[in-house]
From TrEMBL:
<dbReference type="GO" id="GO:0003723">
    <property type="term" value="F:RNA binding"/>
</dbReference>
<keyword id="KW-0133">Cell shape</keyword>
<keyword id="KW-0143">Chaperone</keyword>
<dbReference type="InterPro" id="IPR020627">
    <property type="entry name" value="KhpA"/>
</dbReference>
<dbReference type="GO" id="GO:0071555">
    <property type="term" value="P:cell wall organization"/>
</dbReference>
<dbReference type="GO" id="GO:0008360">
    <property type="term" value="P:regulation of cell shape"/>
</dbReference>
<keyword id="KW-0963">Cytoplasm</keyword>
<keyword id="KW-0961">Cell wall biogenesis/degradation</keyword>
<dbReference type="GO" id="GO:0009252">
    <property type="term" value="P:peptidoglycan biosynthetic process"/>
</dbReference>
<comment type="similarity">
    <text>Belongs to the KhpA RNA-binding protein family.</text>
</comment>
<keyword id="KW-0694">RNA-binding</keyword>
<dbReference type="InterPro" id="IPR009019">
    <property type="entry name" value="KH_sf_prok-type"/>
</dbReference>
<comment type="function">
    <text>A probable RNA chaperone. Forms a complex with KhpB which binds to cellular RNA and controls its expression. Plays a role in peptidoglycan (PG) homeostasis and cell length regulation.</text>
</comment>
<protein>
    <recommendedName>
        <fullName>RNA-binding protein KhpA</fullName>
    </recommendedName>
</protein>
<dbReference type="GO" id="GO:0005737">
    <property type="term" value="C:cytoplasm"/>
</dbReference>
<dbReference type="Pfam" id="PF13083">
    <property type="entry name" value="KH_KhpA-B"/>
</dbReference>
<comment type="subunit">
    <text>Forms a complex with KhpB.</text>
</comment>
Length: 75
């Protein structure tokens, strides 16, 4: 899942080397934290959060096989 998030985000940003995805797994959920360069935050979020919503939709759809709830935080 981390590779999927990285693959989606890297072409969107100006500093692809600063894209970091960390995973925090708890008993009933998995939280992925996406960190990008400060200049790229707007590119990942998009106008009115459209790009962020699209990324989350893809991640949630792929993660529907997992019994745990999946979250994506953009930092």
């Amino acid at each position: 899942m981390k590779a999927l998030i990285t693959t989606i985000v890297k072409p969107l940003v100006d500093y692809p080397e600063d894209v970091v995805v960390t995973e925090n797994e708890e008993s009933n959920k998995i939280v992925y934290h996406l960190t990008v360069h400060p200049d790229d935050i707007g590119k990942v979020i998009g106008k009115n959060g459209r790009i962020a919503k699209s990324i989350r939709t893809v991640v949630y759809a792929i993660g529907s096989d997992v019994k745990k709830r999946i979250y994506l935080d953009i930092m």
